[in-house]
Write a structure and sequence with these properties.
Blueprint (H helix, E strand, L loop, with lengths): L2 H11 L2 E5 L3 H13 L3 E5 L2 H10 L4 E5 L7 H11 L4 E6 L4 H9 L4 E4 L4 H25 L5 H17 L7 H12 L4 H11 L3 H10 L11 E6 L2 H5 L2 H12 L12 E6 L11 E3 L2 E3 L4 H18 L3
Parallel strand pairs: 1-2, 1-3, 3-4, 4-5, 6-7
Antiparallel strand pairs: 6-8, 8-9
The protein binds FE2/S2 (inorganic) cluster (FES).
Length: 312
């Protein structure tokens, strides 16, 4: 292979990013930050030109400002997700509200970065969005834990108790969701629908409450919770490789639980132990200076330990 061909091939495999931002200086600045890291970057100053770019080219990531001179940024995200559902979206805006954040996430945005943000925060959000994309590309279906028949039975019982104990008022929704989570360990979609029905709240509003509070989980928790730090200090020492290893080995994306419900994978912005990174915390136990081999061994030990205690 000719050197130029090899370079072209390498370049074309780097992530393609479209920055949709109407302030030229901001767009160029962000573009420069990403180009220096090796990303292929295009800029769009309007919603219309962003959609035109998507007609002509595939992008791995759309960095989307929401306030644009022509089309609402949220509408652009909606259209991009409809035409190219596997495009990751990172929302950046100076006008952040919980409602817009929830709406953007519901449309499929990976992350939401309120302005002003630092270069590091921006880079880490971009990397995070693209890591998620790669993870999902591994085998997303196998990562989705099946809802067990026991969950449906348990939900029935829990909802019965809720109907006896609560009046079905909207102000009770947080306590009701907490009760569901206490009973099942997470809040399945079916429960959100039943809670909406019981309280008379719109389904989207109940979903909004459940996703707004960090304490609520919408998927089951595995027997072991593995938290990988994705802060800058750990990132530069190879935290992403560790995430890839776990994702690849157990077919998991961050926030997911393995089909056998053995592992739940989570990421954390920083554990505050940056000097001993990369840091991985498994079931509350901190492991410092981790690499792919070490994390593989730690998880294998857990699997062996479980098999020893529970041969079935
Ligand atoms: S960046 Fe990982 S512990 Fe701080």
């Amino acid at each position: 292979m000719q050197i130029q061909e090899a370079l072209d091939l390498q370049e074309s495999s780097w992530p393609q990013v479209l920055i949709m931002e109407d302030e030229a200086s901001v767009a160029k600045g962000l573009g420069m930050v990403l180009s220096e890291e090796g990303y292929n970057v295009d800029l769009a100053m309007t919603g219309r030109s962003a959609l035109d770019s998507f007609n002509q080219k595939m992008f791995d990531l759309l960095v989307a400002d929401l306030r644009l001179p022509d089309i609402d940024g949220m509408e652009v995200i909606r259209q991009v997700k409809r035409r190219r559902p596997d495009t990751e979206v990172l929302v950046i805006t100076g006008y952040s509200t919980v409602t817009t954040a929830v709406e953007a996430m519901k449309l499929g945005a990976s992350d939401y970065l309120p302005k002003p943000f630092t270069e590091d925060e921006f880079l880490s959000a971009v990397k995070g969005a693209l890591v998620t994309k790669e993870f999902f590309a591994t085998d997303s279906e196998s990562a989705l834990p099946e809802r067990l028949p026991e969950d449906s039975l348990r939900l029935k019982e829990v909802m019965q108790q809720i109907r006896q104990r609560f009046e079905g008022r909207q102000y009770e929704v947080i306590s009701i969701l907490q009760k569901v989570q206490n009973g099942l360990g997470y809040i399945p979609t079916e429960a959100l629908l039943q809670v909406a029905d019981f309280t008379g709240m719109p389904e989207a509003a109940v979903y909004g409450v459940a996703t707004f509070y960090e304490r609520f989980r919408l998927s089951p928790v595995g027997r072991h919770v593995v938290k990988v730090c994705r802060g800058t200090a750990c990132h530069v020492k190879g935290a992403d490789k560790i995430l890839h290893e776990i994702a690849h080995r157990y077919k998991l994306a961050p926030g997911q639980t393995s089909k056998d419900r053995l592992f739940t994978l989570e990421t954390v912005a920083c554990f505050g132990s940056c000097a001993i990174g990369p840091v991985v915390v498994v079931d509350g136990k901190v492991s410092a200076d981790m690499d792919t081999d070490k994390v593989g061994k730690v998880l294998q030990e857990l699997v062996k330990g479980d098999a020893h205690h529970d041969p079935h």
